[in-house]
Design brief:
Blueprint: H1 9-23, E1 34-39, H2 47-61, E2 64-69, H3 77-80, E3 85-88, H4 97-108, E4 112-116, H5 144-150, E5 152-153, E6 161-162, E7 166-172, E8 186-191, E9 194-195, E10 198-199, E11 203-210, E12 221-230, E13 233-238, H6 244-247, H7 250-265
Parallel strand pairs: 1-2, 1-3, 3-4, 4-13
Antiparallel strand pairs: 5-10, 6-9, 7-8, 7-11, 11-12, 12-13
Length: 269
């Protein structure tokens, strides 16, 4: 009896399985999660609650695989290589040449960076602040590439700061950007409204807010969310995020998660 290879039960089973996978989205390979490393461990804000809050925001969406590094000064090129995006919830002393170079190369090569609230005070050359905003009397030279990457840092003249914490409206100014696309035109923040940040020309402003004089503001429209293209990499900065309450505002949660997704992948689902 002649053996017909095309009638082999094993071969037919393999072909049928392959066809079924191709035809059924339920059996398709799931999209890989975006790998996030939150840089924390030091801040004049309460990083012990804000870092877990950021972690929870990402965990709730199920699209991210998130880790935390509380000693960013120990970062190396090999340590950050597995990740898609770094999220800085850090404000403290500089990290040293090796760690800073690793971050610069990571972003420049095409990966992502997101910085939150007080991270734009860090590495600016201003006095380092301890927990609860206590001055340390210590100053370090600024990290120029940090400004180049995140696009804005605090300065002394004109003095960066904020008025009273209050509830204010944030308005998307580029609703075609992937981070903002499909969202309502405005959202509410319960936060400090940073003003007179030293800004680089390379920023692309996504959202602004009016800094009301009755709240000790500048009576000007201030940038709140922006992006930067650094080499091949993508950077998203959010001046919001003072504490857990600020981060848990619905519009802020959405903006942060979408900013991290865009920085880590170049798109937003």
């Amino acid at each position: 009896m002649c053996y017909r290879w095309w009638r082999s039960p094993l071969l037919l089973a393999v072909v049928a399985h392959a066809l079924l996978r191709a035809a059924s989205p339920l059996l398709a390979t799931p999209d890989p999660k975006i790998r996030v490393l939150i840089l924390s461990g030091r801040n004049n804000h309460d990083w012990r609650t804000t870092t877990p809050a950021i972690h929870r925001i990402l965990d709730d969406l199920g699209r991210f695989d998130t880790r935390v590094a509380e000693e960013p000064a120990a970062l190396t090129e090999a340590a950050v290589a597995p990740y898609d995006v770094l999220v800085s919830d850090y404000n403290g002393p500089r990290w040293g040449a090796a760690a800073e170079s690793a971050v610069e190369k990571f972003v420049h090569s095409g990966k992502g960076l997101v910085s939150v609230h007080g991270a734009d005070y860090a590495f600016s050359g201003l006095e380092i602040l301890a927990d609860k905003h206590v001055p340390t009397g210590v100053r370090e030279p600024p990290w120029p590439e940090w400004l180049a990457m995140i696009g804005g840092v605090w300065q002394e003249r004109p003095k960066t700061g904020h008025g009273n914490r209050h509830i204010f409206e944030v308005k998307w100014t580029d609703r075609d950007h992937p981070i903002a696309r499909g969202l309502p035109e405005t959202f509410l923040a319960n936060d400090e409204l940073y003003h007179q940040v030293r800004l680089n020309d390379n920023i692309h402003v996504l959202a602004t807010a009016y800094d009301a004089p009755e709240e000790k503001g500048t009576a000007r429209t201030e940038p709140i969310l922006w992006t930067v293209l650094y080499g091949k990499g993508r950077v998203f900065h959010m001046t919001l995020g003072h504490d857990e309450t600020a981060l848990n505002q619905p519009g802020v949660r959405t903006a942060l998660a979408r900013g991290i997704e865009w920085a880590g992948s170049g798109a937003v689902r």
